[in-house]
Design a protein that fits this description.
Elements lengths: L9 H17 L9 H6 L8 E5 L7 H4 L7 E5 L7 H13 L4 E7 L3 H8 L7 H12 L9 H18 L5 H7 L3 E7 L6 E4 L6
Parallel strand pairs: 1-2, 1-3, 3-4
Antiparallel strand pairs: 4-5
Length: about 200
């Protein structure tokens, strides 16, 4: 079935997310597009205006913190907001087939996955697969100050955003052409604010 396309540019999509987060922080959420009429509207297909790759942490629900509704966000959640083959494929699907113009890699403060990776030690079960994806971020930061967890969370979001931005053959050409924007951000648990992170600065 042919999927409808969003008419938002990458910049407009990012502005829409930022405005939604400002409403959430201020306590004036609109709870938009969440009723039965919206469900019916989405029956022919979806046209999310943003992909949000974020942590599985229950305190970081994208539709709530960005004050968005049904069908607005294509959400991918995995502990530590890491990019593996399945996560990359999910982003590629949204970009190539749903024509989503924006990808946000959203880390957060006090991240448990980052904390565990910094602590090291032998992980249980299937956790080694997750720790391996976080190791390049946390290895240079072990033994730092008490702020190192949040520093690592920011750095990890930037690393994953860069990994997506250079991914061939689908994402990188669209970024280069200006049809897709991929940004890193950090959600602050204490006040609800989503901080956009400039590329290349680990702090």
């Amino acid at each position: 079935m042919h999927q409808p396309m969003t008419t938002l540019t990458p910049a407009e999509a990012l502005q829409r997310l930022q405005e939604g987060n400002q409403r959430y922080v201020s306590g004036w959420r609109l709870h938009p597009r969440q009723g039965a009429d919206r469900r019916a509207e989405l029956l022919p297909g979806q046209q999310p205006f943003a992909v949000v790759l974020t942590c599985s942490d229950s305190r970081v629900p994208p539709e709530i913190i960005f004050d968005q509704g049904l069908g607005d966000l294509f959400v991918i959640r995995v502990a530590g907001n890491v990019v593996d083959e399945i996560g990359l494929a999910s982003v590629e699907y949204a970009v190539a087939h749903l024509h989503t113009p924006l990808v946000v890699v959203l880390g957060h403060t006090r991240c448990g996955a980052i904390t565990a990776a910094l602590a090291g030690g032998p992980p249980e079960g299937h956790l080694p697969a997750l720790m391996a994806l976080l190791e390049p971020t946390v290895a240079p930061l072990r033994g730092g100050t008490s702020e190192v967890v949040d520093q690592a969370a920011r750095l990890n979001a930037r690393r994953m955003a860069e990994q997506l931005s250079t991914a061939q053959p689908i994402l990188a050409p669209r970024v280069h052409a200006g049809n897709l924007q991929i940004v890193a951000a950090c959600y602050h648990l204490d006040n609800g604010e989503v901080e956009l992170l400039a590329p290349g600065n680990p702090g």
